[in-house]
């Protein structure tokens, strides 16, 4: 019944499954010539969030799995909403780990973020300084403009890789009002131009320039444009602090994550503290999930902090465990205390 699922949320790596993904719909097929280099492996950013998930129970319910897989099949961004601590960012790392898609490209959004920040940066001042030093004989100039261009996380995700990269656009609701609209064309077309390279593309030997990626690798860019081959798996997260324009919503699969409870909470605790750790910490979990009208919103970090501290320092004293829980497990609404 669930044979169509590519990502299953079981935690164990199964990189062969991504190769079972069928071709994209005709309206989501892209023409970039695939690069041979695989993505670098996942890094500590993923392992910190995931823990040792192999022995943990499934961390996602059926509806969540179906929506994640719909985004994979349709080559559409996944817009994930939910309260802080509901696992929105972790989802991107889980997909990358289970499907063997390598290091997660992360683009944290703030109010000053612009689209170009995610696409690429061009160090024009550095290039000018190197040229001036070369003229004075005190340095080496370079005609290689690629030395001064670095692709951002979004630009790197759109490189024509054989397999999709995972891109986390974190807290999109904190952006300037224009950024969601600016993303529309890139999300729809799967490509973008670097004007600094386009202007040089008709010069001899300048049609292909090697630039630096967000991963720190050097890759070729032809004719001043980056065109994707496999559309990246894009996770956009939002804490619900604003509404997004309808055209962007139309291009996304929307997933809402409730705070982790029951099996999801047990999976999270076991991933970080080992099999059976949820049973050993039922008192702390009960306090974390208790609804007593005190503000309700408690991020899961607080539960993990309380379990870790009691395991390391206060193993058997029930009174001290309760005191630690009182100190660490509190609602985010600071007006309550």
- The percent of residues in helical segments reads 25-40%
Q: Domains counted in the coordinates: how many?
A: 2
CATH architecture of the largest domain: 3-Layer(aba) Sandwich
Rg (C-alpha, Å): 23 Å
Quick recap:
This protein has 337 residues and is of the alpha/beta class.
What does this molecule look like?
- This protein is of the alpha/beta class.
- It has two domains: 15-257, P-loop containing nucleotide triphosphate hydrolases (Rossmann fold); 281-336, no CATH class.
- It contains 14 helices and eleven strands.
- α1 packs across α3 (88-99) and α13 (300-313) runs antiparallel to α14 (318-328).
Write the layout of secondary structure elements.
Blueprint (H helix, E strand, L loop, with lengths): L43 H7 L11 H13 L3 E5 L5 H12 L5 E4 L6 H5 E3 L1 H12 L13 E3 L1 H5 L8 E5 L8 H11 L1 E3 L1 H4 L9 E5 L5 E5 L2 E3 L5 E6 L7 H5 L2 E5 L4 H12 L3 H4 L1 H8 L10 H14 L4 H11 L9
Parallel strand pairs: 1-10, 1-11, 2-5, 5-10
Antiparallel strand pairs: 3-4, 6-9, 7-8
Helix pairs in contact: 1-3, 13-14
Task: Considering the chains and any ligands shown, give keywords for the structure.
36% helix, 5-stranded parallel beta sheet, alpha/beta, 14 helices, 337 residues, globular, single chain, 2 domains, Rossmann fold, two-stranded antiparallel ribbon
